[in-house]
């Protein structure tokens, strides 16, 4: 029977979380909001609207949301041609593909941003599909991105593992009923990932690849 390895992208396969922190912080600053960078970091991994709501609250002026998101997109877009893949990212995906796993990405990125991320990873030959922000109504921590990835792979939750770097990833995977693996390269503490549902935690894709035989992806 087929089995699926579902991967978050930002902070999991590509080293972008702190770029998101700085560009979201600047977008908020330009709009007159003083949002601490540590708070932004904890919110990275949410879709744009959910991130803004999480940081500014439900009583915010929602008419600003589109402008805030556009400002972040413009600021972050300056880095598209030099996004750095995390150590072992492409090698891990190709190894899993070679081992018979169907590799699917589940990410809040879409469009040109998603294209830049895939170029950074450099393993399109191993990626069977992508569940992007354009494909779902609710982003992480809702299970829909992971569930859509499973639909693309054509496998049940019991035959899948989700790899991510944030609490939102672990919660989404847990709600979808898949086994979850956490990576520390996004900057979230091991204890937080474990509490949110990570069955195992590794430093980065290279560490997971080196210890693949003893992992949930064995």
UniProtKB/TrEMBL annotation:
SUPFAM superfamilies membership: HAD-like (SSF56784)
One GO molecular-function entry: hydrolase activity
Superkingdom of the organism of origin: Bacteria
InterPro entries xref list: HAD-like_hydrolase_sf, HAD-like_sf, HAD-SF_hydro_IA, HAD_sf, PGP-like_dom2
Keyword Translocase among record annotations: no
UniProt keywords, alphabetically: Hydrolase
Hydrolase as UniProt keyword: yes
NCBIfam families xref list: HAD-SF-IA-v1 (TIGR01549), HAD-SF-IA-v3 (TIGR01509)
Protein name: HAD family hydrolase
Naturally occurring in which organism (per UniProt): Streptomyces tricolor
Organism lineage: Bacteria, Bacillati, Actinomycetota, Actinomycetes, Kitasatosporales
